Every structure is written in structure tokens, then in C-alpha cells.
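Molecular record:
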Amino acid sequence: MHKRLCLLRFLLAVVSGMLVAAPCAAQYTLDTLIYSGDSKNITDIVFLGDGYTSTQLSKFVRNVKEHSNYFFKKEPWKRYKNMFNVFYVQTASNVSGAGKTPDAPIDNFYGTTFGCAGVDRMPWPTDMNKVFEVLNKTKPDYDMVIILVNSTKYGGAGNEYYKMMCVSLESSSKETICHEAGHSFAGLADEYWYDRTTECPNDARKIDPVKWQRWVGTEKVGVYPFEDTQGWYRPHENCLMRYLDREYCAVCRETIIEKIHSITKNLVSYTPAIRRNTIETDSSLTFKLNLLTPSPNTLKVDWKLDDSLIARNIDTLRLSCNDMTVGSHRLVAYIEDTIQLVRVSGHSKIHLSTVTWRIINEGSSGVDALESYDDTFSVGPLPFSDELTFSSITNLSQPVTMALFNIQGGLVAESTFAPDTPCRLSTANLSPGIYLLYVQVGDRMVYSRKVVKE
């Protein structure tokens, strides 16, 4: 747990001058612990280690496995585990452990020390230049970084700006990682004290109605005041964002799931994937969806032919020419995560994936033409150059904000567009490289993707 505002000020004051291209003579290896698929559809976690000497790197690998296993036993990470890749990078320090204060660093790899921002239990790398050198050469398009510090002193810190946390190996470290993931991944606030000037998903000033009203009265969600900060409120009295060895409350759990949904598409690919091609077939076609499913599986799949439901909750459909009249037809597969742990307004529309096939049935001669397209959210062109566009098949009634960040977490381009107007983000002044695109509708994050500028 940590004091986020103090940490951000510390980072901006001490590290802002270090975010330049680092020397790239050293070589680093990205090892894989969990692989679920291509990063364009998957949330990527990268473990780094500091204060492990060359003879202790086997301990680092063991620590990564132990902490990853624990993390994915915690809800909601558990049910969405197959939507994550987990990687790690081994780097040997000359000295074991971490420094006591930023004024007395030791010769570990990233310069990690306790006492950051004047808080004794707050560890953080003082050599962020080295952190980004390693990430840039191994996994620049990460979604969350977990730095394990080879020290048994209690401590942890997380930062949403860098999508990064730093946690020691004290006995509660596995729980600390789950807490810090709420900060660094989902943008949640601490609930044991208040340290912000702006609202997070799990704190509020306005309470009539409060923004988590849809949960009030269930799962012990209510409107509880911060004892030390008048006029600010939290949704729960016993959440992991307040105490370790707890579960996330319904509001925090929902926020994490929505963040996963904004990064990961349930629909990975589909066949046949045909664009304006003429084909010849005998009497039937097979349509198949490659899906990423939660566990337990809460995906609903509806197959509709000319707006009539013909099948449900299957990933493969065989359609005969005899099932259709002669002429043009439209087959659509609708994929939606119906999880009951999310109650946000418009969820079924915002996170609906669809695939459409246009079929021309020639009768006795079979199917003559077939065209398919994915008409969910559209971002393009990819790779991009001078402009990025965003569009949706659903009518978005709130303003749309497109924000582009570099891999260090710095905002490099941002624009807000009125509802039902073209969303075109100018990127002409940006250098080639990997960026992270975030799209909000109103105050809700609905889309996140790694994009490349050529």
C-alpha cells in the first residue's frame, strides 16, 4: 500500500529528467511463464527483479511463479486468467537487497530503495532509465509491470501513470501485489486514507446519487465516509483496497473487469475471413469463431441469419444452402460477456463483438460469393502515420476522448470529440514507435490497444 500522490510527486521530481533513450549495449531476455495469445488481444504482465545477485536468479524465477500463481487465484483475475500473458526478465544485481533511503543507494540493478517520497515502507527504482531500457528491449507494449525487490522488509508502491508497481518479499507480498494492481492497472484509489484531488472509481464527493449507486445495498456496498477527510466517501468498509487479506469489493472488482475488457477482445479471429472474394462451394459452409473465454464461461454467442436467431452458444456453425432462399443473406455472430459482476450502463453494447458475413446463395450451384467483416470497434489505420481514427457500430451518446501515450506513460496526443462526430486524432508530429491508445466514452474507458507508428 502506498501514498500515491506523494509517490507521483517524487517520480516527477526525481525521474522526469531520466526518461530519455538509454544506452542499448546490454542484451536482455524475455522469458515466458504464461502465454495465452498474441499481445494485440491479450493483457501483458512483465515481472522484473531487483536486488537478486547472479546466484539468486533462480530464487527470482521461483518468486515470479509463486506470486503469479497467487495472483491468479484472486478474483476477478482468476476468471480472466486466459486473457493474460505473463513474462519475466532476469537481471543480476551486484549487491543483494534494496537501499534504505534514496540518499544511500546500493549497487542493485535498478537502484531500488525504500524511503521514497519520505515514506519508509515505499520502495521504488531510482534508475528508471534502466527500467525503461530493459522494457524497451524486451516488452515495450506491456500493460502492467511488477518489480519484485529481494528484501524481506515490508513495502509496496504502485503507480498508474507508469502501469508499474514495486513490491518487497515480506510475508504479505502476494496480497500487496493484488492491492497494488488495483492502483497500477485499474486506477483504483486507496480506501484506508484519502490522498487525491480528483475522484477515482472507488471514491466520491458527490453522493446523491453516488456513482456506484447500482451496487448500493448489495454485497455490503454503501456510502462510507473517510474518517480523516471530510466530504469524501468510499463504497465499502472491508475491501482489499483498504486492508490486505481481503477480497475486492463489488465496485473495485467491476472496475478491474472493465479494464480487462478495454484491453482484451473476446473475439480473436474467425473463419472464413474473406473480403469481397468470389468462391465456389458445393452445398454448405462452416463458420468458426476463435474466442477467449472467462472461467467459468460467461460469454453469450448468438448467431442470426437475416435477423432471425438460428443458434446460440456454439463457436462453430454449419450452414447449408438449403437453409437459405436463393439470393443475398446476412449472417451475424454476436459475442457478449454476460458476467453478472459488471453492472455499468451500456456494457452489453460497448463490449459487444460482432462478425458479419454477406452470403449470395445461387441455389443449385451453391454459394457464389461470400464477404466477411468484423464491425466492432474500429481503429485505423494500423500501423498509423499522421492520423488515428476510432469508430463504433453503436451510437455513442457521450463525448469520445482519444488519448495516446508513449511507452513511458507520457501523454503525447489527446482530443475529445462530440457524440456522433468523426474521431480523428492527429499524430503527424509523433516519432515512429509503439504507443498505447486509450478511448473513453464519457468517463468510462471502453477501448485500449497497443498501436505502432511507422
